[in-house]
Design goal:
Structural class: mainly alpha
Distance between the termini: 81 Å
Shape: elongated
Strand order of the largest sheet: 1-2-3
Bound molecules: glutamic acid
CATH class of the largest domain: Alpha Beta
Order of helices and strands: EHEHEHEHEEEEHEHEEHHHEHHHHHHHHH
Number of strands: 12
CATH topology of the largest domain: Rossmann fold
CATH superfamily of the largest domain: HUPs
Helix content: 40-55%
CATH architecture of the largest domain: 3-Layer(aba) Sandwich
Length: 464
Protein backbone atom coordinates (compact mmCIF):
# COMPACT_ATOMS: atom_id res chain seq x y z
CA UNK A 1 0.00 0.00 0.00
CA UNK A 2 1.39 3.35 -0.99
CA UNK A 3 1.03 6.00 1.70
CA UNK A 4 -1.12 9.06 1.00
CA UNK A 5 -1.28 11.80 3.65
CA UNK A 6 -3.04 15.13 3.68
CA UNK A 7 -3.14 18.47 5.40
CA UNK A 8 -6.70 19.76 5.64
CA UNK A 9 -6.77 23.29 7.02
CA UNK A 10 -9.91 25.34 7.54
CA UNK A 11 -9.00 28.86 6.42
CA UNK A 12 -8.89 31.19 9.40
CA UNK A 13 -6.97 34.09 7.93
CA UNK A 14 -3.47 32.70 8.41
CA UNK A 15 -1.56 29.45 8.51
CA UNK A 16 -1.49 28.58 12.21
CA UNK A 17 1.88 27.52 13.56
CA UNK A 18 0.32 24.27 14.82
CA UNK A 19 -1.19 23.67 11.39
CA UNK A 20 2.22 24.22 9.84
CA UNK A 21 3.63 21.51 12.08
CA UNK A 22 0.80 19.16 11.10
CA UNK A 23 1.51 19.90 7.44
CA UNK A 24 5.22 19.27 7.99
CA UNK A 25 4.64 15.91 9.68
CA UNK A 26 2.30 14.83 6.90
CA UNK A 27 4.79 15.96 4.29
CA UNK A 28 7.68 14.21 6.02
CA UNK A 29 5.80 11.00 6.61
CA UNK A 30 4.76 10.81 2.96
CA UNK A 31 8.34 11.51 1.86
CA UNK A 32 9.77 9.00 4.30
CA UNK A 33 7.39 6.31 3.03
CA UNK A 34 7.84 7.21 -0.62
CA UNK A 35 4.18 8.22 -0.78
CA UNK A 36 2.15 11.27 -1.61
CA UNK A 37 1.16 14.36 0.38
CA UNK A 38 -2.01 16.25 -0.52
CA UNK A 39 -3.64 19.48 0.61
CA UNK A 40 -7.37 19.93 1.06
CA UNK A 41 -8.89 23.27 1.88
CA UNK A 42 -11.87 22.78 4.21
CA UNK A 43 -13.71 25.84 3.05
CA UNK A 44 -17.31 24.99 3.84
CA UNK A 45 -17.67 27.85 6.30
CA UNK A 46 -18.34 30.55 3.73
CA UNK A 47 -18.00 33.44 6.16
CA UNK A 48 -14.44 32.51 7.10
CA UNK A 49 -13.26 31.03 3.83
CA UNK A 50 -12.62 34.24 1.94
CA UNK A 51 -10.24 34.12 -1.04
CA UNK A 52 -7.72 36.05 1.10
CA UNK A 53 -7.96 33.55 3.94
CA UNK A 54 -7.42 30.66 1.53
CA UNK A 55 -4.53 32.48 -0.13
CA UNK A 56 -2.93 33.06 3.28
CA UNK A 57 -2.81 29.28 3.79
CA UNK A 58 -1.14 28.74 0.43
CA UNK A 59 1.31 31.57 1.04
CA UNK A 60 2.34 30.03 4.34
CA UNK A 61 2.64 26.55 2.86
CA UNK A 62 4.57 27.82 -0.17
CA UNK A 63 7.00 29.68 2.06
CA UNK A 64 7.64 26.54 4.11
CA UNK A 65 7.87 24.35 0.99
CA UNK A 66 4.82 22.35 2.04
CA UNK A 67 2.43 22.72 -0.88
CA UNK A 68 0.76 19.46 -1.87
CA UNK A 69 2.08 17.05 -4.49
CA UNK A 70 -1.08 17.56 -6.53
CA UNK A 71 -3.56 20.38 -7.11
CA UNK A 72 -5.38 21.17 -3.86
CA UNK A 73 -8.86 19.83 -3.25
CA UNK A 74 -11.56 22.29 -2.19
CA UNK A 75 -14.07 20.71 0.14
CA UNK A 76 -16.77 23.17 -0.88
CA UNK A 77 -16.67 21.77 -4.42
CA UNK A 78 -17.62 18.29 -3.20
CA UNK A 79 -20.79 19.07 -1.23
CA UNK A 80 -23.09 17.25 -3.62
CA UNK A 81 -20.95 14.18 -3.49
CA UNK A 82 -21.09 14.30 0.33
CA UNK A 83 -24.87 14.56 0.27
CA UNK A 84 -25.06 11.63 -2.16
CA UNK A 85 -23.13 9.48 0.27
CA UNK A 86 -25.59 10.34 3.04
CA UNK A 87 -28.48 9.37 0.78
CA UNK A 88 -26.73 6.16 -0.18
CA UNK A 89 -26.47 5.30 3.49
CA UNK A 90 -30.17 5.97 3.97
CA UNK A 91 -30.93 3.71 0.99
CA UNK A 92 -28.80 0.98 2.56
CA UNK A 93 -30.60 1.35 5.87
CA UNK A 94 -27.43 2.57 7.60
CA UNK A 95 -28.64 6.09 8.11
CA UNK A 96 -32.09 7.56 8.54
CA UNK A 97 -34.11 10.73 8.39
CA UNK A 98 -34.70 12.31 11.76
CA UNK A 99 -37.62 14.68 12.11
CA UNK A 100 -36.96 15.84 15.64
CA UNK A 101 -38.12 19.36 16.28
CA UNK A 102 -35.86 21.92 17.92
CA UNK A 103 -38.07 21.62 21.04
CA UNK A 104 -37.59 17.87 21.23
CA UNK A 105 -33.84 18.30 20.91
CA UNK A 106 -33.94 20.95 23.61
CA UNK A 107 -35.75 18.54 25.92
CA UNK A 108 -33.10 15.89 25.28
CA UNK A 109 -30.43 18.46 26.08
CA UNK A 110 -32.12 19.43 29.32
CA UNK A 111 -32.64 15.85 30.40
CA UNK A 112 -29.00 15.05 29.75
CA UNK A 113 -27.96 18.13 31.68
CA UNK A 114 -30.18 17.23 34.64
CA UNK A 115 -28.66 13.74 34.68
CA UNK A 116 -25.18 15.27 34.50
CA UNK A 117 -24.46 13.55 31.19
CA UNK A 118 -23.32 14.89 27.85
CA UNK A 119 -26.06 15.41 25.29
CA UNK A 120 -26.80 12.28 23.30
CA UNK A 121 -29.46 11.97 20.67
CA UNK A 122 -31.90 9.39 22.00
CA UNK A 123 -32.50 7.59 18.71
CA UNK A 124 -36.17 8.46 18.56
CA UNK A 125 -36.29 8.29 14.74
CA UNK A 126 -33.81 5.46 14.36
CA UNK A 127 -36.42 2.81 13.79
CA UNK A 128 -39.46 4.91 13.13
CA UNK A 129 -41.21 4.86 9.81
CA UNK A 130 -40.85 8.12 7.81
CA UNK A 131 -44.62 7.93 7.14
CA UNK A 132 -44.98 9.16 10.71
CA UNK A 133 -43.01 12.28 9.80
CA UNK A 134 -44.56 15.52 10.96
CA UNK A 135 -45.28 18.11 8.30
CA UNK A 136 -43.15 21.17 7.94
CA UNK A 137 -39.95 19.76 9.48
CA UNK A 138 -36.90 19.49 7.22
CA UNK A 139 -35.33 16.24 8.37
CA UNK A 140 -31.64 15.76 9.08
CA UNK A 141 -29.89 12.53 8.16
CA UNK A 142 -28.32 10.63 11.05
CA UNK A 143 -25.96 7.69 10.97
CA UNK A 144 -27.17 4.47 12.56
CA UNK A 145 -24.14 4.23 14.79
CA UNK A 146 -23.36 0.96 16.55
CA UNK A 147 -25.15 0.82 19.92
CA UNK A 148 -23.12 -1.85 21.60
CA UNK A 149 -19.57 -3.01 21.87
CA UNK A 150 -16.58 -0.79 21.62
CA UNK A 151 -14.36 0.80 19.02
CA UNK A 152 -10.60 0.60 19.31
CA UNK A 153 -8.28 2.64 17.18
CA UNK A 154 -4.60 1.80 17.05
CA UNK A 155 -3.45 5.38 16.84
CA UNK A 156 0.13 5.72 15.60
CA UNK A 157 0.88 8.37 18.19
CA UNK A 158 -1.63 7.92 21.03
CA UNK A 159 -1.43 4.12 21.03
CA UNK A 160 -4.56 2.00 21.40
CA UNK A 161 -7.56 4.12 22.29
CA UNK A 162 -10.96 2.57 23.01
CA UNK A 163 -14.41 4.07 23.43
CA UNK A 164 -17.65 2.35 24.31
CA UNK A 165 -19.98 2.62 21.34
CA UNK A 166 -22.80 3.73 23.64
CA UNK A 167 -20.93 7.00 23.88
CA UNK A 168 -21.24 7.66 20.16
CA UNK A 169 -24.73 8.75 19.36
CA UNK A 170 -26.40 8.83 15.96
CA UNK A 171 -24.69 11.96 14.78
CA UNK A 172 -25.94 14.14 11.95
CA UNK A 173 -24.56 13.63 8.43
CA UNK A 174 -26.79 15.99 6.52
CA UNK A 175 -28.47 19.08 7.91
CA UNK A 176 -32.08 20.01 7.34
CA UNK A 177 -31.06 22.31 4.50
CA UNK A 178 -29.29 19.43 2.77
CA UNK A 179 -25.73 20.55 3.53
CA UNK A 180 -23.28 17.95 4.82
CA UNK A 181 -21.76 18.20 8.27
CA UNK A 182 -18.04 18.44 8.82
CA UNK A 183 -17.95 14.81 9.99
CA UNK A 184 -19.41 13.55 6.73
CA UNK A 185 -17.36 15.80 4.46
CA UNK A 186 -14.06 14.83 6.04
CA UNK A 187 -14.70 11.13 5.70
CA UNK A 188 -15.93 11.28 2.11
CA UNK A 189 -13.09 13.52 1.03
CA UNK A 190 -10.45 11.42 2.76
CA UNK A 191 -11.88 8.32 1.14
CA UNK A 192 -12.14 9.89 -2.31
CA UNK A 193 -8.62 11.27 -2.10
CA UNK A 194 -7.32 7.82 -1.19
CA UNK A 195 -5.90 9.00 2.13
CA UNK A 196 -4.22 6.12 3.95
CA UNK A 197 -2.94 8.07 6.96
CA UNK A 198 -4.80 10.84 8.76
CA UNK A 199 -2.26 12.76 10.83
CA UNK A 200 -3.70 15.77 12.62
CA UNK A 201 -4.02 17.55 15.94
CA UNK A 202 -5.29 15.49 18.86
CA UNK A 203 -8.22 17.85 19.24
CA UNK A 204 -9.70 15.63 16.51
CA UNK A 205 -9.18 12.34 18.35
CA UNK A 206 -12.82 12.16 19.47
CA UNK A 207 -13.98 12.71 15.92
CA UNK A 208 -11.94 9.73 14.77
CA UNK A 209 -14.28 7.25 16.47
CA UNK A 210 -17.34 8.71 14.80
CA UNK A 211 -15.51 8.87 11.51
CA UNK A 212 -14.50 5.21 11.84
CA UNK A 213 -18.17 4.30 12.27
CA UNK A 214 -18.97 6.19 9.10
CA UNK A 215 -16.23 4.45 7.10
CA UNK A 216 -17.57 1.11 8.27
CA UNK A 217 -21.13 2.02 7.38
CA UNK A 218 -19.92 2.68 3.82
CA UNK A 219 -17.81 -0.54 3.83
CA UNK A 220 -14.75 1.61 3.20
CA UNK A 221 -11.30 0.92 4.63
CA UNK A 222 -10.72 2.95 7.77
CA UNK A 223 -7.46 4.91 7.35
CA UNK A 224 -4.68 4.79 9.87
CA UNK A 225 -4.75 7.62 12.38
CA UNK A 226 -2.06 9.57 14.17
CA UNK A 227 -3.18 12.33 16.53
CA UNK A 228 -0.47 14.81 17.33
CA UNK A 229 -0.48 16.47 20.77
CA UNK A 230 -1.09 20.19 20.55
CA UNK A 231 1.49 22.91 21.03
CA UNK A 232 1.41 24.73 24.33
CA UNK A 233 2.85 28.07 25.33
CA UNK A 234 5.87 28.44 27.60
CA UNK A 235 3.54 28.53 30.62
CA UNK A 236 1.98 25.18 29.74
CA UNK A 237 -1.37 26.60 28.58
CA UNK A 238 -2.72 25.85 25.13
CA UNK A 239 -0.93 28.07 22.62
CA UNK A 240 -2.88 31.25 22.15
CA UNK A 241 -2.41 34.87 21.16
CA UNK A 242 -1.18 35.88 24.58
CA UNK A 243 1.89 33.66 24.03
CA UNK A 244 2.83 35.52 20.88
CA UNK A 245 2.22 35.23 17.18
CA UNK A 246 0.21 32.28 15.92
CA UNK A 247 0.47 32.80 12.18
CA UNK A 248 3.40 31.56 10.14
CA UNK A 249 3.44 34.88 8.25
CA UNK A 250 4.23 36.69 11.51
CA UNK A 251 7.34 34.52 11.95
CA UNK A 252 8.43 35.34 8.43
CA UNK A 253 7.95 39.04 9.21
CA UNK A 254 9.94 38.67 12.43
CA UNK A 255 12.82 37.48 10.29
CA UNK A 256 12.83 33.72 10.61
CA UNK A 257 13.97 31.61 7.70
CA UNK A 258 11.59 28.88 6.58
CA UNK A 259 14.17 26.14 7.09
CA UNK A 260 14.68 27.32 10.69
CA UNK A 261 10.96 27.28 11.39
CA UNK A 262 10.63 23.83 9.81
CA UNK A 263 13.51 22.51 11.86
CA UNK A 264 12.02 24.05 14.98
CA UNK A 265 8.52 22.67 14.33
CA UNK A 266 9.98 19.27 13.53
CA UNK A 267 11.68 19.11 16.92
CA UNK A 268 8.61 20.47 18.65
CA UNK A 269 6.93 17.15 19.26
CA UNK A 270 9.29 14.75 17.48
CA UNK A 271 12.79 13.73 18.36
CA UNK A 272 15.80 11.87 17.08
CA UNK A 273 18.12 11.44 20.04
CA UNK A 274 19.64 14.76 21.01
CA UNK A 275 19.84 16.04 17.45
CA UNK A 276 18.77 19.66 17.26
CA UNK A 277 19.87 20.73 13.80
CA UNK A 278 18.28 18.46 11.28
CA UNK A 279 18.31 19.09 7.56
CA UNK A 280 15.28 18.39 5.46
CA UNK A 281 16.97 15.38 3.83
CA UNK A 282 17.93 13.98 7.22
CA UNK A 283 14.41 14.54 8.54
CA UNK A 284 12.92 12.61 5.61
CA UNK A 285 15.24 9.72 6.36
CA UNK A 286 14.52 9.70 10.08
CA UNK A 287 10.88 10.69 10.38
CA UNK A 288 8.65 8.00 11.86
CA UNK A 289 5.41 8.36 13.77
CA UNK A 290 6.54 6.35 16.79
CA UNK A 291 9.03 9.10 17.62
CA UNK A 292 6.27 11.71 17.91
CA UNK A 293 5.83 12.49 21.61
CA UNK A 294 2.56 11.87 23.39
CA UNK A 295 2.55 14.95 25.55
CA UNK A 296 2.08 18.54 24.47
CA UNK A 297 5.24 20.42 23.59
CA UNK A 298 6.05 23.94 24.70
CA UNK A 299 6.82 26.70 22.30
CA UNK A 300 10.21 28.24 23.05
CA UNK A 301 11.14 31.32 21.07
CA UNK A 302 14.77 31.29 22.28
CA UNK A 303 15.30 27.87 20.68
CA UNK A 304 13.79 29.07 17.44
CA UNK A 305 16.13 32.08 17.52
CA UNK A 306 19.18 29.91 17.99
CA UNK A 307 18.21 27.68 15.12
CA UNK A 308 17.53 30.72 13.00
CA UNK A 309 21.00 32.10 13.74
CA UNK A 310 22.44 28.79 12.63
CA UNK A 311 20.47 28.73 9.38
CA UNK A 312 21.35 32.34 8.63
CA UNK A 313 25.04 31.52 8.97
CA UNK A 314 24.57 28.51 6.69
CA UNK A 315 22.51 30.32 4.09
CA UNK A 316 23.81 31.35 0.71
CA UNK A 317 25.10 34.96 0.73
CA UNK A 318 23.26 35.94 -2.40
CA UNK A 319 19.92 34.70 -1.08
CA UNK A 320 20.45 36.60 2.18
CA UNK A 321 21.56 39.73 0.33
CA UNK A 322 18.40 39.63 -1.79
CA UNK A 323 16.21 39.31 1.28
CA UNK A 324 18.05 42.12 3.04
CA UNK A 325 17.83 44.40 0.00
CA UNK A 326 14.11 43.68 -0.32
CA UNK A 327 13.76 44.58 3.35
CA UNK A 328 15.70 47.82 3.00
CA UNK A 329 13.75 48.96 -0.02
CA UNK A 330 15.59 51.55 -1.99
CA UNK A 331 19.14 50.28 -2.52
CA UNK A 332 21.30 51.29 -5.48
CA UNK A 333 23.74 49.06 -7.36
CA UNK A 334 26.70 50.09 -5.22
CA UNK A 335 24.80 49.34 -2.04
CA UNK A 336 23.75 45.99 -3.42
CA UNK A 337 27.23 44.91 -4.26
CA UNK A 338 28.55 46.04 -0.87
CA UNK A 339 25.83 44.12 0.95
CA UNK A 340 26.64 41.02 -1.02
CA UNK A 341 30.37 41.40 -0.46
CA UNK A 342 29.88 42.11 3.22
CA UNK A 343 27.33 39.35 3.80
CA UNK A 344 29.73 36.73 5.06
CA UNK A 345 30.78 39.05 7.87
CA UNK A 346 27.27 40.32 8.54
CA UNK A 347 25.58 36.96 8.81
CA UNK A 348 27.85 35.67 11.54
CA UNK A 349 26.07 37.63 14.25
CA UNK A 350 22.41 37.97 13.28
CA UNK A 351 19.65 35.91 14.87
CA UNK A 352 16.89 37.11 12.57
CA UNK A 353 16.60 38.58 9.12
CA UNK A 354 15.25 41.76 10.69
CA UNK A 355 18.47 42.09 12.68
CA UNK A 356 20.56 41.20 9.64
CA UNK A 357 18.76 43.84 7.58
CA UNK A 358 19.30 46.50 10.25
CA UNK A 359 22.94 45.52 10.55
CA UNK A 360 23.45 45.71 6.80
CA UNK A 361 21.83 49.11 6.33
CA UNK A 362 25.06 51.07 6.80
CA UNK A 363 26.53 49.50 3.66
CA UNK A 364 23.72 51.01 1.61
CA UNK A 365 23.76 54.38 3.36
CA UNK A 366 25.48 57.49 2.10
CA UNK A 367 27.23 60.30 3.94
CA UNK A 368 26.35 61.81 6.28
CA UNK A 369 25.41 58.65 8.19
CA UNK A 370 22.97 58.51 11.04
CA UNK A 371 24.80 57.82 14.27
CA UNK A 372 23.57 55.92 17.28
CA UNK A 373 24.06 57.79 20.51
CA UNK A 374 26.79 55.41 21.56
CA UNK A 375 28.59 55.89 18.27
CA UNK A 376 28.29 59.64 18.55
CA UNK A 377 29.81 59.50 22.02
CA UNK A 378 32.87 57.73 20.68
CA UNK A 379 33.64 60.57 18.32
CA UNK A 380 35.38 62.76 20.87
CA UNK A 381 37.74 65.51 19.88
CA UNK A 382 40.72 63.30 20.66
CA UNK A 383 39.28 60.45 18.61
CA UNK A 384 38.56 62.78 15.71
CA UNK A 385 42.11 64.06 15.61
CA UNK A 386 43.35 60.46 15.48
CA UNK A 387 40.84 59.68 12.76
CA UNK A 388 42.11 62.69 10.83
CA UNK A 389 45.64 61.28 11.07
CA UNK A 390 44.33 57.93 9.95
CA UNK A 391 42.55 59.54 7.03
CA UNK A 392 45.79 61.06 5.86
CA UNK A 393 47.58 57.73 6.19
CA UNK A 394 44.84 55.89 4.28
CA UNK A 395 44.77 58.51 1.59
CA UNK A 396 48.43 57.96 0.95
CA UNK A 397 47.95 54.24 0.56
CA UNK A 398 48.12 52.81 -2.92
CA UNK A 399 46.81 49.32 -2.34
CA UNK A 400 43.49 48.84 -0.52
CA UNK A 401 42.71 45.64 1.31
CA UNK A 402 41.63 44.41 4.70
CA UNK A 403 45.28 43.82 5.57
CA UNK A 404 46.62 47.14 4.34
CA UNK A 405 43.87 49.05 6.20
CA UNK A 406 44.67 47.10 9.35
CA UNK A 407 48.36 47.96 9.01
CA UNK A 408 47.54 51.64 8.64
CA UNK A 409 45.25 51.64 11.67
CA UNK A 410 47.88 49.86 13.76
CA UNK A 411 50.55 52.30 12.68
CA UNK A 412 48.42 55.35 13.58
CA UNK A 413 47.43 53.83 16.94
CA UNK A 414 51.05 53.10 17.73
CA UNK A 415 52.12 56.59 16.81
CA UNK A 416 49.41 58.13 18.99
CA UNK A 417 50.37 55.64 21.71
CA UNK A 418 46.83 54.28 22.12
CA UNK A 419 45.60 50.73 22.10
CA UNK A 420 44.22 49.46 18.80
CA UNK A 421 40.66 49.42 20.17
CA UNK A 422 40.89 53.09 21.08
CA UNK A 423 41.20 53.89 17.40
CA UNK A 424 39.24 50.99 15.93
CA UNK A 425 36.05 51.81 17.84
CA UNK A 426 35.82 55.46 16.66
CA UNK A 427 36.71 54.20 13.20
CA UNK A 428 33.77 51.78 13.44
CA UNK A 429 31.51 54.61 14.53
CA UNK A 430 32.68 56.75 11.60
CA UNK A 431 32.24 54.03 8.98
CA UNK A 432 29.03 52.38 10.21
CA UNK A 433 27.31 54.92 12.48
CA UNK A 434 27.17 52.20 15.12
CA UNK A 435 29.30 50.50 17.77
CA UNK A 436 28.69 46.97 16.54
CA UNK A 437 29.48 45.70 13.08
CA UNK A 438 31.51 43.07 11.30
CA UNK A 439 35.29 43.37 11.64
CA UNK A 440 36.12 46.99 10.92
CA UNK A 441 38.96 46.24 8.50
CA UNK A 442 36.61 44.01 6.56
CA UNK A 443 34.09 46.85 6.53
CA UNK A 444 36.69 49.22 5.11
CA UNK A 445 37.62 46.68 2.46
CA UNK A 446 33.98 46.23 1.45
CA UNK A 447 33.31 49.99 1.41
CA UNK A 448 36.49 50.47 -0.63
CA UNK A 449 38.76 53.42 -0.62
CA UNK A 450 36.61 56.31 -1.84
CA UNK A 451 33.65 55.60 0.43
CA UNK A 452 35.82 54.88 3.46
CA UNK A 453 37.61 58.20 3.01
CA UNK A 454 34.34 60.01 2.37
CA UNK A 455 32.85 58.67 5.61
CA UNK A 456 35.97 59.54 7.58
CA UNK A 457 36.12 63.04 6.16
CA UNK A 458 32.47 63.56 6.89
CA UNK A 459 33.03 63.01 10.62
CA UNK A 460 36.35 64.79 10.80
CA UNK A 461 34.87 67.69 8.87
CA UNK A 462 31.96 67.97 11.24
CA UNK A 463 34.31 68.50 14.13
CA UNK A 464 36.13 71.39 12.50
N1 LIG B 1 -10.08 21.27 9.06
C1 LIG B 1 -9.71 20.74 10.32
C2 LIG B 1 -8.95 21.80 11.10
O1 LIG B 1 -8.46 22.76 10.50
C3 LIG B 1 -8.84 19.52 10.23
C4 LIG B 1 -9.62 18.32 9.89
C5 LIG B 1 -8.80 17.06 9.83
O2 LIG B 1 -7.55 17.12 9.77
O3 LIG B 1 -9.42 16.00 9.81
O4 LIG B 1 -8.81 21.67 12.28
Amino acid sequence: MSVVTRFAPSPTGFLHIGGARTALYNWLYARHMGGKYLVRIEDTDKARSTPEAVQAIFDGLAWLGLLGDEEPVYQSAQLERHADVAKELVAKGRAYYCYCTPEELQTMREEAKAAGKPMRYNGMWRDRDPSEAPKGVDPVVRLKAPLEGETTLADHIQGEVTVQNQQLDDFVLLRGDGTPTYMLSVVVDDHDMGITHVLRGDDHLNNAFRQAALYRAMDWDVPEFGHIPLIHGADGGKLSKRHGALGVDAYRDMGYLPEALNNYLLRLGWGHGDDEIISSAQAIEWFTLDAVGRSPSRFDLAKLENLNGHYIREADDERLANLVIAGLGDVDEVGRSRILKGMDGLKQRAKTMVELTENAAFYAASVPLNFTEKAQNLLTEEALSQLAALTAQLEAMTDWSEESVEQAVRAVAEKADVKLGKLAQPLRAALTGSTVSPGIFEVAAVLERAETLARLKAVCGTAQ
